[in-house]
């Protein structure tokens, strides 16, 4: 069987990846605008997979700052006014008090109000003439992150079940690990795809909002938050965990010869 030391090391390693995945899943900083222009177009202070935080008028303030800077064109003014109008029409539930964990303030949707969250993701960028529905992206990311965490637990169980006469447990462990990492990579890809789609909007360009936004990949980098980076780290840690698992099985094979 796999050595006790190897099982313990791999279990601890895998639990770190699982906990990081759960933290990312539960927190509200997947989207965090990094400048006034991005905050204005997104209409929020931060957003996660289960909650949206408006910052109690922060987006309105950012829009006013961008529009008064004079850096954009006449189309920028029209687009900005559309954004302001839509932000003002966001349901009151968005700004209702919430005790959601890891929030920088209490201006977030409560966990039991997923309708408001889906309403937000159903039309992005806020106020854009070519806004698109990204609810499927968010729901897919939720499911993939949850699968990443769940498959991590099953991988631990499969590894612990390995012993002489149960060679299939090793194959099962590798299979579970491959599924876990695939789910993690797919979640990262889906979320980046959503941000890329948002940044590709005709209303999300430099020439309309002056120096507050930059063209290209920088648009995407101005949107992702620390929750997303925690999950990226979890996936990277899980990939290294596959190497740890291979070493565990290698040591197991040597011990069985003696």
From TrEMBL:
Its main location: membrane. PROSITE patterns: CLAUDIN. It is found in: Membrane. It is a multi-pass membrane protein. The chain crosses the membrane at residues 7-26, 143-161, 181-199, 226-251. One of its GO terms (cellular component) is membrane. InterPro entries: Claudin_CS (IPR017974). Keywords: Membrane, Transmembrane, Transmembrane helix. This is Claudin.
């Amino acid at each position: 069987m796999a050595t006790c030391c190897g099982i313990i090391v791999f279990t601890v390693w895998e639990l770190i990846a699982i906990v990081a995945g759960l933290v990312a899943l539960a927190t509200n900083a997947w989207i965090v605008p990094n400048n006034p222009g991005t905050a204005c177009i997104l209409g929020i202070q931060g957003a996660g997979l289960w909650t949206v935080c408006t910052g109690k008028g922060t987006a309105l303030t950012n829009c006013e700052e961008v529009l008064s800077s004079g850096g954009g064109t006449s189309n920028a003014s029209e687009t900005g006014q559309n954004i302001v109008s839509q932000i003002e029409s966001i349901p009151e539930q968005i700004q209702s008090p919430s005790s959601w964990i890891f929030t920088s303030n209490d201006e977030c949707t409560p966990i039991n109000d997923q309708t408001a969250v889906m309403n937000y993701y159903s039309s992005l960028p806020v106020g854009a003439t070519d806004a698109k529905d990204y609810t499927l992206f968010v729901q897919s990311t939720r499911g993939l992150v949850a699968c990443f965490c769940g498959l991590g637990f099953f991988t631990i169980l499969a590894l612990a079940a390995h012993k002489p006469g149960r060679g299939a447990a090793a194959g099962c462990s590798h299979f579970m690990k491959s599924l876990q990492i695939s789910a993690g990579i797919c979640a990262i890809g889906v979320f980046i795809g959503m941000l890329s789609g948002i940044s590709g909007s005709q209303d999300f360009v430099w020439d309309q909002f002056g120096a507050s936004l930059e063209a290209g990949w920088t648009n995407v980098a101005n949107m992702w938050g620390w929750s997303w980076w925690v999950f990226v780290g979890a996936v990277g840690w899980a990939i290294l965990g596959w190497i740890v698992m291979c070493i565990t099985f290698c040591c197991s094979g040597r011990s069985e010869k003696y």
